[in-house]
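User: Structure please.
Assistant: Input sequence and predicted structure:
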Amino acid sequence: MHHFKILEYALSSLIRRKFKNLAIIIVYTFTVATLASILFLTHSLKKEAEYLLADAPELVVQRLSGGRHELIPLEYGETIRRIPGVAQVQPRLWGYYYDGLIDANYTLQEVLPSHSKLPMLQGRLPQNPGECSIGAGVAEVRRIGLEDDLIMVDSANVGRTFTVTGVFKPESALLTNDLVILEKQDLIDFFDYPADLATDIAVSVRNPVEINTIAEKIKRQLPDTRPISRSEILRTYAAVFNWRSGMMLSVFVAALVAFCILAWDKATGISAEEKREIGILKAIGWETSNILEVKFWEGIAVSLTALLLGLLTAYIHVFFLNATLLTPVIKGWSVLFPTFRLAPFIDPYQILVIAFLTVPPYVVSTVIPSWKAAITDPEAAMRG
């Protein structure tokens, strides 16, 4: 009952200084919301990448020349196929196409068996020369649909017309938003690829434990290649997202420091009225520990209110508003990046980190100056 009365007094004290505390809570909430939005968005994107790459081939083999990615001979696929433990080898043809009409890049790819697993909104995959299937993003920006024509300029600077036979569903936008699928020969002609070369080779491995061993054998037998495992791709995604979130957090440090200065100023700037209040409480018999408990609960109330409001704001911003203020920095430069709704993946460890970085400093900055006022002579404190 004693502690309950102190808590009740602390809350009534906050209400009496509502404008001061409201200003602190607003700035505090903004700080927490910004920090939490960056962490929530980064963690969700990394989780999305893990789910998307779950069906990716265990190994992708690229050929390097002068440290740069080059087309790889199809005969390399036969060499890889003979390595024990390799289940399947799939040479792949793809490339990037810059559309000057809308200042965007498409990914052009030949028809692969894996494409049949992607859900189509309308139509089918291309089966004949001059046909194509497109992602929802391409259909939207070019304002075309089924049976319409998609005109692109090939490597010889000649315009080519492809009839749209299929449009992928927006649900697969993360994989297909900027995708244009063509027949193999159409793609070879479009980019003027040599017939005996591929862009890369996808390799499936029977035993996942042997992925690194097979990658070493490929590298040993084909020294000018670079085998990339799925786990390495995931680590690259994680590193990219961590780097971009780190850049934003670095920028955010200035705002965090400003908040700390404000919180310290507001918390330590005990007014004459507050000092007089502490003096009166001491004069009527309150112990120093009782006054510190009041200030402790005041700090906890303000901190937890701002923390919960900040986390709620960040959750709405990231998972309901698609992090509209942060995605241009985190996602990158492609204007055809899909507008998708992030799944709400939240790491409890991140919540603890945010709480640790924000709640204890404020509570401490509230209690310490009150302790200084509480140990002074009550008469001096009442005089301010």
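Residues 230-268 form the longest helix (39 residues).
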